[in-house]
Structure formats: structure tokens, C-alpha cells
Amino acid sequence: MKIILTHEVSGLGTAGDVVEVKDGYARNYLLPRGVAIRWTKGGQKDVEQIRRGRKIREIASIEQANDVKSQLEGLTVRLKVRAGTGGRLFGSVTPADIATAVKTAGGPDVDKRRIELTTPIKSLGTHRISVRLHPEVAANVGVQVDAAK
User: What are the Ribosomal protein L9 domain coordinates in residue numbering (predicted)?
Assistant: First the structure.
């Protein structure tokens, strides 16, 4: 099935790319999550609009990405969350929570879709997360999750 990506998908492409994927992957994963739309001749016009929007938000060069990476890796990001006994959280820490915590810690604006959590954060302590800044640059950030009093 031919689709147009509306968001960046790891291993597949960036927003505005037209890609061919298996029908089940598109129908069951990409389309319901809103990261892609079906390709049509009329939809091809949307590709240019998506690409223009991406250029505005995107980190343009590797040098700029490395600058943001050094800012992020120098930060101490702390989150206060509700936790039960034994250090288990009520729920989990989301990428949106981390993006907000980075901003309040004095860091740069980070799009929540660029934050990659390999496993959900469901316990107190220090966790390492990855932030994809550029296709070739990723920052590793330490997030300290503390219990809210």
C-alpha cells in the first residue's frame, strides 16, 4: 500500500515521504495512530505542505543538532510523580512529561515525538532516554524520577 507519512517513523521515513508498506502494517498500525495517510493524487498536494511544515520545525544541520545535543546532555532533568510503596508509579512517565521537564530545566524545546522510550518508565530512579535530533544525531539524557510529596 502506498502511504504518505505525516510524522517521522523510525526505520521508514520522515514526514512528507511517500513510501510503500505492507497493507496490514499501514491499516493496523500507521493509519490508526495518525502517522500516515493513504496516498491519492489529491493527497500528493498535501506532501508539499507537510514538507514545508517539517522544514520550519526541523533542526537544519548536523552542527545545530550537535549544539542541541550538548545542551541536552548537560541538563539534569527531574520529574516529580505520584508513586506507591516500593517505588512503583501510578501510571507511567510519557514523552510529553519529559519534554515539559526538559523545558522547565532550562533546556531547548524538544518535540515529544522525538523522544524515544525503549521501555515505559514505571519506577522511581534515574532512567536514560534517547532524543532523536537529526537522522544522524541522538542525545542521551538522564531523567531523575522522584516521588511527589
Answer: 13-40
